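Ops channel
N.P.: pipeline sanity check, posting one input/output pair.
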């Protein structure tokens, strides 16, 4: 079965051009006019990736991504934000909302397709590794076998070293990140400013050698850094 991509944009021309190109590339494409409609389609169709505009009526792209990330089933769903807004602060808002990639308009459809392939390939690898690791642990007769399987991905020594390098505050931020909270929401719970939370997130990205929040969450869950 072809992978399903949800394209969200209130501009009909943009939706059609992206949809036609992706369908020709072999994907199954569903579309939505705004964030509210997109949320319904996410629950109904469980797409493999979302491509969404930011400025839309009823619900913008930032809020859409934030709402999607609040659902455990979609915390790792790849999301690409498309927008004509190119200011640094606006890009930061995009990443804070939980997107994997921020692609400014105008963009080349070929570039978008390449980004989609890359995100889908990584998502499939992570999912297959998780299923393999989970199956091996559940089916293991003894704890020793489960430990051996886990060591093939990440040794206990490496895990211990990484955990010891994280401050207690970084561990708190990492735990909240896996629940899909924004910087503002984490700041409210930890009594920190969103800017301070962003500094902790940047430190976590550096220490785990990951490139964005979604990758950081996948890394943490894969290696048992969070409950």
């Amino acid at each position: 079965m072809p992978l399903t991509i949800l394209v969200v944009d209130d501009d009909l021309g943009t939706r059609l051009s992206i949809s036609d190109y992706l369908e020709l590339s072999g994907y199954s494409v569903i579309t939505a006019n705004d964030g509210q409609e997109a949320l319904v389609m996410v629950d109904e169709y469980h797409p493999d990736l979302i491509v969404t505009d930011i400025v839309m009526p009823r619900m913008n792209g930032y809020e859409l991504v934030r709402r999607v990330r609040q659902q455990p089933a979609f915390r790792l769903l790849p999301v690409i934000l498309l927008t004509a807004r190119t200011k640094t602060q606006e890009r930061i808002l995009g990443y804070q909302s939980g997107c994997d990639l921020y692609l400014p308009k105008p963009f080349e459809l070929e570039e978008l397709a390449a980004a989609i392939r890359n995100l889908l390939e990584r998502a499939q690898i992570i999912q297959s590794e998780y299923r393999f690791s989970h199956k091996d642990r559940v089916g293991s007769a003894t704890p020793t076998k489960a430990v051996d399987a886990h060591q093939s991905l990440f040794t206990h020594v490496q895990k211990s070293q990484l955990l010891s390098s994280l401050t207690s505050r970084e561990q708190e931020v990492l735990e909240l990140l896996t629940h899909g909270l924004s910087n503002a929401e984490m700041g409210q719970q930890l009594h920190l400013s969103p800017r301070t939370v962003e500094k902790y997130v940047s430190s976590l990205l550096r220490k785990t050698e990951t490139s964005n929040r979604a990758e950081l969450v996948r890394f943490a869950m894969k290696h048992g850094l969070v409950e």
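N.P.: looks fine end to end. Residues 149-157 have pLDDT under 50 and may be disordered.
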